[in-house]
Amino acid sequence: MDPLTHLFITRKVIGAEPTVVVAGLAADTPFYLTYPAWVIKQGQFATAFQSNEWPEAPRWMKTLHHICHSLPVLLTVTILIKFITGKWPLAALAWGVHILIDIPTHSRKNWAPQFLWPLSSITVDGLSWTDVAIPGINRAINKISGRVTGLF
Length: 152
Fold this sequence. Notes:
Elements: H1 3-14, H2 18-26, H3 29-41, H4 45-51, H5 59-68, H6 71-85, H7 90-102, H8 129-150
């Protein structure tokens, strides 16, 4: 799911506290900090954006993604925080909701979360939000650019 939708759902369902909102987005932070820069460095961004065929990410990047979208990792971190602070962290709920939203909204072609990593590599072949969003954005850009170029 896209970050704006994660942000909206986190704020409406769980809360608007800054730590909660950040936790609702944090699972995708490694992706947004690494993958776009990597695709640009490979010289493949324009082609990938136009075709919606994105290059395969390096293994280390995928592993980071699986760690951040793992329910066992979330449970471990949550229990550690509870043990250290004596409180159940509300931010963990936001992280968990992020993972649960991503399971059906990513296809195996586009970063399907291995939500039981490292215990299992199982994924769900959901409907990828990029299969819906990117073509729509491309059509809008093409219409706008066609109108602009048609003016001259």
